[in-house]
Each structure stands twice: as structure tokens, then as C-alpha cells.
């Protein structure tokens, strides 16, 4: 027997190969488990973009709705602008029409004012001539009076009816455009007087001054139409009643009057009877 036979060995006993394999297998399993957990976490993390991607359709639908609403609003705005433009155009046209009507009314008023001023100036001039006692005017008045006296004294039938109607209107008002029975303008009175004896005359003085045969103011007869101004453009008319007198609707201030020829000598005369 060896002297060392009973000395206990201090070496660790060798592990069986099977135990070593199990240990290694366990370690490997742990690693794999760790990797599996890590992979699962990674997979969970990587699923979030997928969830974000799933929300995109809802976002796109909202955007489409917003775009559609914006398009409708834009279209409505365009319609509003169009309606507003049409309204403004109509207002502009109405203003233009009103301005035109006003200008036309002012033009007519101005023409009437000038005609009135001319008549009044003629009357004033005639009145001054009468006051001065012009010899020429007296001679004309005397000649007319002599011629008119015989005409007036022998006035019968239609002439008498004409004169009687005219004298019945003396004192009534002068109103521009009126033809009776309570008021007249100059041509309205002449037309109304002649209508009493069945003679139709034009309405205005310009036409009445050419309605018959032109006669001299020194050879007048009862019923002759006297006019002031040029034949065809006369601005005033009256009727000769004989005795060197006439009856006419003079102006708004005097109305219908009977006056001597010397008051306002006429430019000419026409005979329609």
C-alpha cells in the first residue's frame, strides 16, 4: 500500500457531462427567453406606426369635409358678389334715369320762363309806347278803330257768337296748358272760342299763326286771329273783336283781358272765317 493511499484528495470532484449540458442548455434558454421578450417588446413598439396609419382615413375624411365646406362658402361668396353687382347696376341706372328726367324738367321750365319774360317785356314795351302817346301808335289805333267800328256794328251770326263767348271769359285765370272752362292759356282760349262756331284750330300758338290766310293788321275784321312773333313761331295769340280791341289770355298776373290794340300791337294776323 502506498503511503499516500489514505490521504484525502483536495480536488473538486468532476461533474458529470450530463449536468454540464443541462447548465449550458439552461443558459441558452435564458438567453433565448431574453431575446424573445426583447423581440416582443420591439414588436409592440413597432405596432404603433401601424395604429397611426389606421387613423389616416379618419383624418382624410375630415380634410375632405373641410375642403367641401370651403368650396361651398367660396361659391356662395361669388353669388353674393354677383347679386350685389346687379343691385348696384340697377341703382346706377335708376340714378341716371332720375337725373335725365330732372334735366328735362329743368329745360322745359327754363323755356317757359324765357317765354314768359319775353311776353312781359313785350307788354312793358307796349305800355311805355302807349304812355308816351306816340303819334304813330295813335294813327294806327285810329285806323284800326274806324275799321273795327264798322265790323263790330255789323257783326252777326258766327262773328257775334265768337265775340260773345270771348267776352264771357274775361276775368278768368291764365293757366299754362289750360283750355277751359275756368282757366285758359292764350292758344287754349282761341281754340275754345272757335270751337263754339264749329271751327277746329291747332292747339298751340305757333300753328294757329299759320292756320288761315295772312292779313294786314291795318285791314282787320272781327274774328281775325292776332299773333305776336313770327308766323309759324308765334309765342302769343288773341282774337280781334272790332273797335280796335282784342281779347286774349295775357299772362298769370292779368288773366283774360280785353285790351286796345295800342296796348300791345300784334306782329301779324290770320283770317279763318
Secondary structure layout plus pairing:
Layout (H helix, E strand, L loop, with lengths): L16 H116 L2 H19 L4 H12 L3 E2 L8 E2 L1 H10 L9 H4 L4 E3 L9 E4 L7 E7 L2 E7 L3 E6 L7 E4 L2
Parallel strand pairs: 1-2
Antiparallel strand pairs: 3-8, 4-5, 4-8, 5-6, 6-7
Q: Would you give an account of this structure?
A:
- The protein is rod-shaped.
- Helices cover 59% and strands 13% of the residues.
- The relative contact order is 0.09.
- It has a 6-stranded antiparallel sheet with strand order 3-8-4-5-6-7, with helices on both faces. A two-stranded parallel sheet has the order 1-2.
- Residues 41-53 and 131-154 have low confidence and may be disordered.
- The longest helix has 116 residues, at 17-132.
- It is of the alpha+beta class and 273 residues long.
- It has 2 domains: 59-132; 135-271, endopeptidase fold (from Nostoc punctiforme) (Alpha-Beta Complex), CATH 3.90.1720.10.
- The chain contains 5 helices and 8 strands, in the order H-H-H-E-E-H-H-E-E-E-E-E-E.
- Strand 5 and strand 6 (245-251) form a beta hairpin.
Radius of gyration: 61 Å
State the helix count.
5
Largest sheet: 6 strands, antiparallel
The gross shape turns out to be: rod-shaped
Proportion of strand residues: 5-15%
Kindly, what is the distance between the CA atoms of the first and last residues, rounded to a whole number of angstroms? 197 Å
Q: Could you spell the SSE succession in H and E letters?
A: HHHEEHHEEEEEE
Amino acid at each position: 500500500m502506498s503511503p499516500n493511499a489514505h490521504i484525502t484528495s483536495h480536488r473538486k470532484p468532476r461533474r458529470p457531462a450530463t449536468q454540464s449540458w443541462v447548465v449550458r442548455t439552461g443558459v441558452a434558454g435564458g438567453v433565448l427567453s431574453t431575446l424573445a421578450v426583447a423581440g416582443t417588446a420591439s414588436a409592440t413598439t413597432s405596432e404603433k406606426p401601424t395604429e397611426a396609419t389606421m387613423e389616416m382615413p379618419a383624418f382624410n375624411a375630415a380634410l375632405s369635409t373641410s375642403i367641401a365646406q370651403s368650396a361651398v362658402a367660396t361659391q356662395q361668396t361669388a353669388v353674393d358678389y354677383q347679386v350685389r353687382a346687379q343691385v348696384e347696376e340697377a341703382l346706377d341706372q335708376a340714378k341716371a334715369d332720375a337725373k335725365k328726367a330732372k334735366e328735362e324738367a329743368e329745360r322745359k321750365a327754363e323755356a317757359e320762363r324765357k317765354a314768359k319774360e319775353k311776353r312781359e317785356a313785350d307788354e312793358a314795351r307796349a305800355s311805355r309806347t302807349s304812355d308816351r302817346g306816340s303819334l304813330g301808335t295813335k294813327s294806327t289805333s285810329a285806323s284800326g278803330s274806324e275799321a273795327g267800328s264798322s265790323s263790330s256794328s255789323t257783326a252777326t251770326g258766327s262773328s257775334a257768337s265768337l265775340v260773345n263767348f270771348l267776352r264771357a271769359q274775361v276775368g278768368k285765370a291764365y293757366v299754362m296748358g289750360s283750355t277751359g272752362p275756368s282757366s285758359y292759356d292764350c292758344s287754349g282760349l282761341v281754340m275754345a272760342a272757335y270751337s263754339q262756331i264749329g271751327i277746329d284750330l291747332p292747339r298751340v300758338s305757333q300753328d294757329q299763326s299759320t292756320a288761315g290766310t295772312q292779313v294786314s293788321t291795318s285791314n282787320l275784321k272781327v274774328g281775325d286771329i292776332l299773333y305776336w312773333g313770327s308766323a309759324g313761331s308765334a309765342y302769343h295769340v288773341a282774337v280781334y273783336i272790332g273797335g280796335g280791341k282784342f281779347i286774349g289770355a295775357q299772362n298769370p298776373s292779368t288773366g283774360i283781358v280785353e285790351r286796345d290794340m295800342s296796348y300791345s300791337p300784334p306782329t301779324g294776323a290770320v283770317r279763318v272765317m
